[in-house]
Design brief:
By secondary structure, the chain is of the alpha+beta class. The chain contains eight helices and 14 strands. The chain has three domains: 102 residues, D-Maltodextrin-Binding Protein, domain 2 (3-Layer(aba) Sandwich), CATH 3.40.190.10; 85 residues, Periplasmic binding protein-like II (D-Maltodextrin-Binding Protein, domain 2, 3-Layer(aba) Sandwich); 67 residues, 2-Layer Sandwich (Alpha-Beta Plaits).
Length: 272
């Protein structure tokens, strides 16, 4: 909901049910589990949807990928499905699991993973609490962002089975409808811009022309600032986008170098 708000869409979280309102007359919103989303998009029940690459692969869904949106619950990084065993297990590589039992929610991908390696295992579907089953069976394949949950359960990663990010996907027939295609691609642009803006701020200041070179040298080298003339010929306005964690170190240095009227402001979207 926060991401869509940053992209310019007001979608209040529904108090109950799965249908949400949206302030766009050409859109309607319904909430499905990520695990199901690609199937409904493939069947044309939905024109587009947000889900993980992992579930598109797991379902074998024939959909059109519109955009990769790299964000997760905790960090702006991909998530990983990892093969894990208890720390005390003698298993150190996938081949050691031959003849064993592996629990996971990502059944089809896991079966294909072991087929590709020529290792015969029994893959069982896990309805949840997968980490707890690692000591009941031989291994698990579970999703992780930071690895913290695995460490807390004293599990050891053996291999990465699949790396996944969120994708905006669309029904292939819907993308042949001109207005729908444009709407979906515009949505992708705005959502990507909202993600790019996270963790960044705009920085604006007034700078004496005599100190401009010194100020520009302090700013991050990869950022090209916008420099605008002011009514007073001896001064210019400088504006740049920087990482939020950089801004707190940057502002005092800019002040010392002669910048005044320094303003920082949050960003909703950054469109590259």
């Amino acid at each position: 909901m926060d991401l869509f708000a940053r992209a310019g869409y007001n979608i209040p979280e529904p108090s109950r049910g799965y249908f949400a309102s949206v302030d766009d007359e050409k859109m309607s919103v319904i909430l499905f589990r990520a695990q199901e989303m690609s199937r409904y998009v493939e069947d044309g029940i939905l024109d587009a949807g947000l889900t993980g690459y992992d579930w598109v692969v797991e379902n074998g869904s024939d959909v059109q990928e519109i955009a990769e949106l790299v964000y997760s619950k905790q960090r702006h990084v991909p998530v990983r499905w990892v093969l894990a065993v208890p720390e005390e297990s003698p298993v150190t590589k996938p081949a050691d699991l031959a003849g064993g039992i592996v629990a996971t929610e990502l059944v089809n991908v896991t079966r294909q993973y072991f087929r590709d390696k020529g290792v015969e295992v029994k893959v069982e579907f896990s309805w949840g609490a997968t980490e707890a089953k690692a000591r009941m069976l031989d291994a698990i394949v579970d999703v992780t962002e930071t690895g913290g949950s695995l460490k807390a359960n004293k599990l050891c990663e053996i291999d990465t089975v699949l790396t996944s990010t969120t994708r905006l996907i669309a029904n292939k027939q819907a993308m042949h409808v001109k207005w729908k295609s444009r709407k979906i691609r515009n949505l992708a642009l705005l959502l990507a811009g909202a993600i790019d803006a996270r963790g960044k701020v705009g920085l604006k200041m007034n700078v004496p022309r005599a100190a401009l070179d010194k100020i520009v040298a302090i700013l991050p080298a990869e950022k090209s600032p916008t420099v605008s003339a002011l009514a007073e010929n001896d001064w210019v306005a400088v504006e740049v986008i920087v990482e939020e964690h950089v801004e707190r170190e940057l502002v005092p240095r800019l002040k010392e170098a002669g910048a005044t009227g320094i303003i920082t402001y949050p960003l909703k979207r950054v469109i590259s």
